[in-house]
Amino acid sequence: MMTNSEINMDQLLIKAQTLIEALPYIQKFNGKKIVVKYGGSAMLDENLKYNVIKDVALLKLIGLNPIIVHGGGKEISKWVEMIGKEPEFVNGLRVTDGETMEIAEMVLSKVNKGLVQMMQKLGVNAVGISGKDAGLMTVKKRFPGGKDIGYVGEVCGVDGTILDTLLEKNFIPVIAPIGSSEDFESYNINADDAACAVAKALNAEKLVFLTDIEGVFMDPNDKSTLISEMNVAEAKEFIDKGIVGGGMLPKLSNCIDAIENGVSRVHILDGRVEHCLLLEFFTEKGIGTAILKEPLF
Fold this sequence. Notes:
Blueprint: H1 4-29, E1 33-38, H2 46-61, E2 65-70, H3 73-82, E3 89-90, E4 93-94, H4 98-121, E5 126-130, E6 137-141, E7 153-158, H5 161-168, E8 172-176, E9 178-180, E10 186-188, H6 191-202, E11 206-211, E12 229-231, H7 232-240, H8 248-259, E13 265-270, H9 276-282, E14 289-292
Helix pairs in contact: 3-4, 6-8, 7-8
């Protein structure tokens, strides 16, 4: 029978082994830019939210340069309903009239500053901005399927100067997906698209999508078919063959776009798993799906 001291020593050795396993990854990603698209259930559950922010804070403190791009769609829908309107979507994009645009900007600003406050509480400096600040994201009006759905923008330009400045001064940028058109109108941007645009502009080492699914599956109905790693050619094949659909289709398309425009790796992670960022970045197995540029072998 093992004594308490022997059990405690075994537990300590397991912790030490975990740290050693993380060392080469910490060395590899030191100083690299990591864009995290933060949304889904992980934003609604306070415990999950705090764990995500702790993960990002740790990434910063061990030498990485994280940038957060957040959503807030469910919160926006709640406020839209409160004024007696029914949220409406076309191809997954929110129909955004002038009144809804004001609500979206108000809600996203509130979410943004809440995340900044959590960062500050953990002892890391963060600055909340939107795509309108310093001309970060210029947009044009988006017409999904040829339909006019109001103030919904497609990113057509990113000026990362403000992000580089914040990172150089040791701040974590926290970005709300609101952009400005050439005539200085405000537009709502899909948060996945905004994160992809930022990652491409910064030539980020990693782009991470925190979602409400475990990753990409060979068979969506069989959880044992989770794909840990796939290359761009395989991802395109999945789209062409119709293996993926629904919300995963535009997400995987964004992954391919990011890889083909300078991002080294893209990860699709289940944000409902505590410390999913650390598990994916710093353990050999990982927990989600990583999309790479080149074939694995």
